Sequence to fold (355 residues):
Amino acid sequence: MSARRTAPRIDDAYTYHGIDAVLLENSQLRILVVPGKGGDILEFRDKQTDVDVLWHADHEWTPPDAGTIPEPESASWLDHYPGGWQLNLPIAGTVADDDLPYGLHGESALIPWSYTTNTTDDAVTLELQTDLLRYPFSLERTLTLSRGEAALEITERVTNEGGVDLEYIWQQHIALGQPLIGPGARLDVPTTMGQVAEYRPGHENARLKSGATFEWPEAPGTDGTMIDLRQFPPLDSTIHDVAYATDLEAGWFAVTNPDLDVGFCFTFPTDPFECLWYWQPFGGHAEAPYWNRNYNVGLEPTTAYPAGDVPAAQRDNGTMKTLRAGETLEASFVARTYHGVESVSAVDPDGTVHE
Fold:
Protein backbone atom coordinates (compact mmCIF):
# COMPACT_ATOMS: atom_id res chain seq x y z
CA MET A 1 0.00 0.00 0.00
CA SER A 2 2.84 2.39 0.83
CA ALA A 3 4.40 1.76 -2.59
CA ARG A 4 1.10 2.58 -4.31
CA ARG A 5 0.80 5.85 -2.38
CA THR A 6 4.31 7.02 -3.20
CA ALA A 7 4.57 5.71 -6.76
CA PRO A 8 4.30 8.32 -9.54
CA ARG A 9 1.08 8.38 -11.53
CA ILE A 10 -0.07 9.37 -15.00
CA ASP A 11 -3.69 10.10 -15.93
CA ASP A 12 -5.17 11.10 -19.30
CA ALA A 13 -8.77 11.58 -18.11
CA TYR A 14 -8.51 15.33 -18.59
CA THR A 15 -9.06 18.13 -21.07
CA TYR A 16 -7.66 21.67 -20.96
CA HIS A 17 -9.58 24.33 -22.91
CA GLY A 18 -11.21 21.38 -24.64
CA ILE A 19 -7.82 19.85 -25.61
CA ASP A 20 -6.74 16.32 -24.69
CA ALA A 21 -4.48 16.60 -21.62
CA VAL A 22 -2.33 14.26 -19.53
CA LEU A 23 -1.27 14.70 -15.90
CA LEU A 24 2.09 13.36 -14.64
CA GLU A 25 2.59 13.53 -10.88
CA ASN A 26 4.88 12.30 -8.12
CA SER A 27 5.62 13.45 -4.58
CA GLN A 28 7.65 16.42 -5.87
CA LEU A 29 6.06 17.65 -9.11
CA ARG A 30 2.73 18.02 -10.90
CA ILE A 31 3.04 18.40 -14.69
CA LEU A 32 0.23 18.99 -17.20
CA VAL A 33 0.81 18.16 -20.88
CA VAL A 34 -1.62 18.79 -23.76
CA PRO A 35 -0.97 16.28 -26.58
CA GLY A 36 -3.95 17.76 -28.41
CA LYS A 37 -1.96 20.97 -28.97
CA GLY A 38 1.69 20.39 -29.72
CA GLY A 39 2.44 18.41 -26.57
CA ASP A 40 2.67 21.77 -24.76
CA ILE A 41 3.60 21.64 -21.07
CA LEU A 42 1.20 24.01 -19.32
CA GLU A 43 1.88 23.29 -15.66
CA PHE A 44 5.18 22.56 -13.90
CA ARG A 45 4.27 22.78 -10.23
CA ASP A 46 6.75 22.33 -7.39
CA LYS A 47 4.79 20.61 -4.62
CA GLN A 48 7.04 21.70 -1.76
CA THR A 49 6.21 25.37 -2.39
CA ASP A 50 3.04 24.99 -4.52
CA VAL A 51 4.66 27.24 -7.15
CA ASP A 52 3.89 26.66 -10.82
CA VAL A 53 7.03 28.07 -12.47
CA LEU A 54 5.44 28.52 -15.90
CA TRP A 55 3.79 31.68 -17.20
CA HIS A 56 0.13 31.56 -18.21
CA ALA A 57 -1.03 34.00 -20.87
CA ASP A 58 -2.87 37.13 -19.74
CA HIS A 59 -4.63 37.29 -23.11
CA GLU A 60 -7.42 35.16 -24.51
CA TRP A 61 -6.31 32.33 -26.78
CA THR A 62 -8.05 29.60 -28.73
CA PRO A 63 -7.04 26.02 -29.52
CA PRO A 64 -6.07 25.45 -33.16
CA ASP A 65 -8.48 23.40 -35.23
CA ALA A 66 -7.52 19.71 -35.12
CA GLY A 67 -5.55 18.58 -38.14
CA THR A 68 -4.98 22.04 -39.58
CA ILE A 69 -2.48 24.80 -39.04
CA PRO A 70 -3.04 28.52 -39.57
CA GLU A 71 -1.99 30.65 -42.49
CA PRO A 72 1.71 31.57 -42.62
CA GLU A 73 1.62 34.80 -40.64
CA SER A 74 2.99 35.71 -37.23
CA ALA A 75 -0.40 36.37 -35.66
CA SER A 76 -1.49 32.78 -36.24
CA TRP A 77 0.91 31.19 -33.72
CA LEU A 78 0.14 33.94 -31.21
CA ASP A 79 -3.63 33.47 -31.55
CA HIS A 80 -3.14 29.98 -30.09
CA TYR A 81 -0.41 30.75 -27.55
CA PRO A 82 -1.35 29.83 -23.94
CA GLY A 83 2.05 30.53 -22.38
CA GLY A 84 3.92 27.62 -20.81
CA TRP A 85 6.42 25.51 -22.73
CA GLN A 86 6.34 24.67 -26.45
CA LEU A 87 8.55 22.63 -28.76
CA ASN A 88 9.05 24.67 -31.93
CA LEU A 89 9.97 23.02 -35.25
CA PRO A 90 10.89 23.18 -38.09
CA ILE A 91 11.72 26.83 -37.44
CA ALA A 92 11.63 29.28 -34.56
CA GLY A 93 11.39 33.03 -34.97
CA THR A 94 9.81 35.18 -37.65
CA VAL A 95 10.07 34.18 -41.30
CA ALA A 96 11.13 36.83 -43.81
CA ASP A 97 11.31 34.53 -46.86
CA ASP A 98 8.22 33.83 -48.93
CA ASP A 99 9.61 30.38 -49.79
CA LEU A 100 9.09 29.20 -46.19
CA PRO A 101 5.44 28.31 -45.43
CA TYR A 102 5.43 29.75 -41.91
CA GLY A 103 5.08 33.07 -40.15
CA LEU A 104 6.25 32.51 -36.56
CA HIS A 105 7.67 29.44 -34.77
CA GLY A 106 6.75 26.76 -37.31
CA GLU A 107 3.97 24.24 -36.76
CA SER A 108 4.87 21.61 -34.16
CA ALA A 109 3.07 23.53 -31.39
CA LEU A 110 -0.08 23.93 -33.48
CA ILE A 111 -0.91 20.35 -34.40
CA PRO A 112 -2.16 17.38 -32.35
CA TRP A 113 0.26 14.67 -31.23
CA SER A 114 -0.67 11.04 -30.61
CA TYR A 115 0.46 9.54 -27.33
CA THR A 116 0.85 6.42 -25.22
CA THR A 117 1.45 6.10 -21.48
CA ASN A 118 3.47 3.64 -19.42
CA THR A 119 3.53 3.10 -15.66
CA THR A 120 5.88 1.20 -13.37
CA ASP A 121 6.39 1.44 -9.62
CA ASP A 122 9.40 3.68 -10.22
CA ALA A 123 8.42 5.94 -13.13
CA VAL A 124 5.69 7.12 -15.49
CA THR A 125 6.33 7.86 -19.14
CA LEU A 126 4.42 9.82 -21.75
CA GLU A 127 5.44 9.06 -25.34
CA LEU A 128 4.31 11.62 -27.93
CA GLN A 129 4.53 11.44 -31.72
CA THR A 130 3.51 13.55 -34.70
CA ASP A 131 4.32 14.19 -38.36
CA LEU A 132 4.56 17.77 -39.52
CA LEU A 133 2.21 18.84 -42.30
CA ARG A 134 4.37 21.30 -44.24
CA TYR A 135 7.75 19.66 -43.65
CA PRO A 136 8.59 15.94 -43.99
CA PHE A 137 9.70 15.76 -40.35
CA SER A 138 8.60 13.02 -37.96
CA LEU A 139 8.83 14.02 -34.28
CA GLU A 140 8.97 11.91 -31.13
CA ARG A 141 9.03 13.22 -27.57
CA THR A 142 9.32 11.10 -24.42
CA LEU A 143 8.65 12.58 -20.96
CA THR A 144 9.65 10.57 -17.88
CA LEU A 145 8.85 11.37 -14.25
CA SER A 146 10.51 9.10 -11.71
CA ARG A 147 9.57 8.29 -8.14
CA GLY A 148 10.54 11.00 -5.66
CA GLU A 149 12.48 13.12 -8.18
CA ALA A 150 11.83 16.84 -8.71
CA ALA A 151 12.99 16.39 -12.31
CA LEU A 152 11.31 15.74 -15.64
CA GLU A 153 13.51 13.92 -18.18
CA ILE A 154 12.82 14.62 -21.86
CA THR A 155 14.14 12.93 -24.98
CA GLU A 156 13.27 14.21 -28.47
CA ARG A 157 13.91 12.72 -31.89
CA VAL A 158 13.52 14.49 -35.24
CA THR A 159 13.68 12.51 -38.49
CA ASN A 160 13.73 13.95 -42.01
CA GLU A 161 11.47 11.51 -43.87
CA GLY A 162 11.86 13.40 -47.13
CA GLY A 163 14.33 12.97 -49.96
CA VAL A 164 15.71 16.51 -49.68
CA ASP A 165 18.17 17.99 -47.18
CA LEU A 166 16.31 20.67 -45.22
CA GLU A 167 17.31 23.58 -43.00
CA TYR A 168 15.74 23.73 -39.56
CA ILE A 169 15.62 25.64 -36.28
CA TRP A 170 14.76 23.57 -33.18
CA GLN A 171 13.68 25.35 -29.98
CA GLN A 172 12.45 24.75 -26.44
CA HIS A 173 10.16 27.76 -25.93
CA ILE A 174 9.96 27.95 -22.11
CA ALA A 175 8.06 30.90 -20.61
CA LEU A 176 8.47 31.40 -16.85
CA GLY A 177 6.27 33.73 -14.82
CA GLN A 178 5.25 35.02 -11.43
CA PRO A 179 5.69 34.25 -8.61
CA LEU A 180 9.02 32.65 -9.61
CA ILE A 181 9.98 35.65 -11.74
CA GLY A 182 10.33 38.98 -9.95
CA PRO A 183 12.80 41.45 -8.44
CA GLY A 184 13.87 38.97 -5.76
CA ALA A 185 14.87 36.29 -8.28
CA ARG A 186 18.15 35.69 -10.12
CA LEU A 187 19.03 34.29 -13.54
CA ASP A 188 22.25 32.31 -14.00
CA VAL A 189 23.54 31.32 -17.45
CA PRO A 190 27.04 29.91 -18.14
CA THR A 191 28.04 32.26 -20.95
CA THR A 192 30.60 34.96 -21.62
CA MET A 193 28.98 36.83 -24.49
CA GLY A 194 25.57 38.13 -25.40
CA GLN A 195 23.88 40.03 -28.18
CA VAL A 196 20.81 42.28 -28.20
CA ALA A 197 18.32 41.80 -31.01
CA GLU A 198 18.30 44.28 -33.88
CA TYR A 199 15.07 46.15 -33.23
CA ARG A 200 12.97 47.24 -36.16
CA PRO A 201 11.70 50.85 -36.35
CA GLY A 202 8.82 51.38 -33.95
CA HIS A 203 9.93 48.81 -31.37
CA GLU A 204 8.65 50.18 -28.07
CA ASN A 205 9.95 50.07 -24.50
CA ALA A 206 13.46 48.74 -25.08
CA ARG A 207 15.90 49.29 -22.22
CA LEU A 208 18.77 47.50 -24.05
CA LYS A 209 20.75 49.03 -26.90
CA SER A 210 19.61 47.58 -30.22
CA GLY A 211 22.10 45.22 -31.85
CA ALA A 212 24.73 45.56 -29.11
CA THR A 213 27.27 42.80 -28.48
CA PHE A 214 28.32 42.61 -24.83
CA GLU A 215 30.09 40.58 -22.18
CA TRP A 216 27.38 38.71 -20.27
CA PRO A 217 25.70 39.60 -17.94
CA GLU A 218 26.29 43.38 -18.31
CA ALA A 219 24.32 44.65 -21.33
CA PRO A 220 24.41 48.27 -22.51
CA GLY A 221 21.20 50.18 -21.92
CA THR A 222 19.54 52.76 -24.15
CA ASP A 223 20.34 55.41 -21.51
CA GLY A 224 24.06 54.62 -21.40
CA THR A 225 23.95 52.57 -18.21
CA MET A 226 24.84 48.88 -17.96
CA ILE A 227 22.02 46.42 -17.21
CA ASP A 228 22.75 43.30 -15.17
CA LEU A 229 20.75 40.56 -16.90
CA ARG A 230 21.02 38.31 -13.84
CA GLN A 231 18.47 40.58 -12.13
CA PHE A 232 14.79 41.15 -12.89
CA PRO A 233 13.22 44.65 -12.87
CA PRO A 234 10.32 45.89 -10.69
CA LEU A 235 6.89 44.40 -11.32
CA ASP A 236 5.53 47.77 -12.50
CA SER A 237 8.14 48.08 -15.26
CA THR A 238 7.35 48.86 -18.89
CA ILE A 239 10.16 47.00 -20.69
CA HIS A 240 10.40 44.77 -23.74
CA ASP A 241 13.72 43.34 -24.94
CA VAL A 242 15.20 40.27 -26.60
CA ALA A 243 18.80 39.14 -26.10
CA TYR A 244 20.81 36.03 -26.95
CA ALA A 245 23.43 34.19 -24.90
CA THR A 246 25.69 33.21 -27.78
CA ASP A 247 28.88 31.68 -26.33
CA LEU A 248 27.57 29.05 -23.96
CA GLU A 249 30.18 27.28 -21.83
CA ALA A 250 27.63 24.60 -20.91
CA GLY A 251 24.00 23.84 -21.68
CA TRP A 252 21.89 25.04 -18.78
CA PHE A 253 20.07 27.97 -17.23
CA ALA A 254 18.70 28.46 -13.72
CA VAL A 255 16.23 30.91 -12.16
CA THR A 256 16.34 31.06 -8.35
CA ASN A 257 13.92 32.87 -6.05
CA PRO A 258 15.35 32.74 -2.47
CA ASP A 259 12.30 34.54 -1.06
CA LEU A 260 10.13 31.59 -2.13
CA ASP A 261 12.89 29.01 -1.57
CA VAL A 262 12.40 27.59 -5.04
CA GLY A 263 14.29 27.55 -8.32
CA PHE A 264 13.89 26.10 -11.79
CA CYS A 265 16.71 24.86 -13.99
CA PHE A 266 16.91 23.32 -17.44
CA THR A 267 19.72 21.38 -19.09
CA PHE A 268 20.26 20.91 -22.82
CA PRO A 269 23.00 19.83 -25.26
CA THR A 270 24.89 22.75 -26.79
CA ASP A 271 25.21 20.65 -29.93
CA PRO A 272 22.91 21.53 -31.63
CA PHE A 273 21.32 24.01 -29.11
CA GLU A 274 24.15 26.52 -29.33
CA CYS A 275 22.37 29.61 -27.99
CA LEU A 276 19.77 30.74 -25.45
CA TRP A 277 17.15 33.26 -26.48
CA TYR A 278 16.13 35.56 -23.62
CA TRP A 279 12.72 37.16 -24.24
CA GLN A 280 12.03 39.95 -21.72
CA PRO A 281 8.41 41.21 -21.77
CA PHE A 282 8.50 42.96 -18.40
CA GLY A 283 5.16 44.76 -18.71
CA GLY A 284 6.17 46.50 -21.94
CA HIS A 285 5.32 44.25 -24.88
CA ALA A 286 3.10 46.79 -26.61
CA GLU A 287 1.95 44.67 -29.57
CA ALA A 288 -0.86 42.12 -29.90
CA PRO A 289 -1.76 39.96 -28.09
CA TYR A 290 0.13 41.34 -25.09
CA TRP A 291 -0.69 45.08 -24.93
CA ASN A 292 1.67 45.72 -21.96
CA ARG A 293 -0.18 43.24 -19.73
CA ASN A 294 2.37 40.50 -19.04
CA TYR A 295 5.44 40.33 -16.80
CA ASN A 296 7.36 37.16 -17.65
CA VAL A 297 10.45 35.83 -19.40
CA GLY A 298 11.14 33.37 -22.17
CA LEU A 299 14.32 31.31 -21.73
CA GLU A 300 14.59 29.38 -24.97
CA PRO A 301 17.44 26.99 -25.87
CA THR A 302 17.63 27.18 -29.66
CA THR A 303 19.79 25.83 -32.46
CA ALA A 304 20.18 29.21 -34.20
CA TYR A 305 19.75 32.95 -33.74
CA PRO A 306 18.50 35.69 -34.12
CA ALA A 307 14.72 35.53 -33.80
CA GLY A 308 14.03 37.51 -36.97
CA ASP A 309 14.75 37.40 -40.69
CA VAL A 310 14.52 33.60 -40.91
CA PRO A 311 16.33 32.05 -42.77
CA ALA A 312 18.69 34.71 -44.16
CA ALA A 313 20.04 36.05 -40.84
CA GLN A 314 20.85 32.56 -39.54
CA ARG A 315 22.56 31.63 -42.79
CA ASP A 316 24.61 34.82 -42.62
CA ASN A 317 25.94 34.17 -39.09
CA GLY A 318 26.46 30.45 -39.68
CA THR A 319 24.02 29.15 -37.07
CA MET A 320 21.42 27.68 -39.45
CA LYS A 321 21.61 23.89 -39.49
CA THR A 322 20.56 21.22 -41.98
CA LEU A 323 18.93 17.83 -41.44
CA ARG A 324 19.91 15.49 -44.27
CA ALA A 325 17.38 13.32 -46.05
CA GLY A 326 16.76 10.23 -43.91
CA GLU A 327 18.76 11.60 -40.95
CA THR A 328 17.56 11.43 -37.32
CA LEU A 329 18.67 13.79 -34.56
CA GLU A 330 18.14 13.04 -30.86
CA ALA A 331 18.52 15.33 -27.85
CA SER A 332 17.89 14.91 -24.13
CA PHE A 333 16.92 17.52 -21.55
CA VAL A 334 16.19 17.74 -17.82
CA ALA A 335 13.84 20.26 -16.19
CA ARG A 336 14.01 20.47 -12.38
CA THR A 337 12.91 22.48 -9.37
CA TYR A 338 15.23 22.89 -6.37
CA HIS A 339 15.45 24.52 -2.93
CA GLY A 340 17.89 25.96 -0.40
CA VAL A 341 19.92 27.88 -2.99
CA GLU A 342 20.44 31.62 -3.61
CA SER A 343 22.45 31.41 -6.84
CA VAL A 344 23.66 28.64 -9.14
CA SER A 345 27.25 28.13 -10.31
CA ALA A 346 26.64 24.98 -12.37
CA VAL A 347 24.02 22.42 -13.31
CA ASP A 348 25.09 18.92 -14.32
CA PRO A 349 23.47 17.28 -17.36
CA ASP A 350 21.33 15.16 -14.99
CA GLY A 351 19.97 18.33 -13.37
CA THR A 352 22.13 18.30 -10.21
CA VAL A 353 22.42 21.92 -9.01
CA HIS A 354 25.62 23.43 -7.60
CA GLU A 355 25.50 26.65 -5.57
User: Anything to note?
Assistant: The mean pLDDT is 94. The radius of gyration is 19 Å.
